[in-house]
């Protein structure tokens, strides 16, 4: 029980940090492309909304209560949203900054739009994985504890 609480809290912290990184870098990128049409910004707006929702839910469910495990369907939904954000961002990349997982052209200093864009892609993927693992742990916890707390029928004794 303590191990699952600890793993859940570590995953929630990672989800919160990854969503904050995506929201910050993506928000700066949105500010830089604010003069373009809203249709061009739609992928980044969607990613920003998913990051905001993920930060809110990760912050609410950060504290290790047994009730935080029963939210595994929402964890799965947020994971699917993150995978969708990852997919639309990878589709937008279209080879202009190199391949998706080619990290050789990354520069840590200066104004590197490709590096920022790939950071958004990488942290959205990591966040999707963390939310998926949270959903799997929550599903396993609920499945294991369901039989223990099921109401017994009073007409049959188990003696």
Number of contiguous helices = 4
Helix content: 55-70%
Largest sheet: none
Shape: elongated
Radius of gyration, CA atoms, in whole angstroms: 20 Å
Measured distance between first and last alpha carbons:
28 Å
Annotation, overall tally of beta strands: 0
Strand content: under 5%
Query: Helix/strand/pairing class, anyone?
Result: mainly alpha
Please indicate the count of domains: 1
The whole-number mean of residue pLDDT values reads: 83
User: What is the N-to-C succession of helices and strands?
Assistant: HHHH
Contiguous low-pLDDT stretches (5 residues minimum) are none
Account of the protein in words:
Helix 1 (2-32) runs antiparallel to helix 2 (38-60) and helix 1 (2-32) packs antiparallel against helix 4 (113-146). The protein has one domain. The mean pLDDT is 83. Helices cover 69% and strands 0% of the residues. With 159 residues, the protein is mainly α.
Summarize the structure.
With 159 residues, the protein is an all-alpha fold. The protein has helices at residues 2-32, 38-60, 72-93, 113-146.
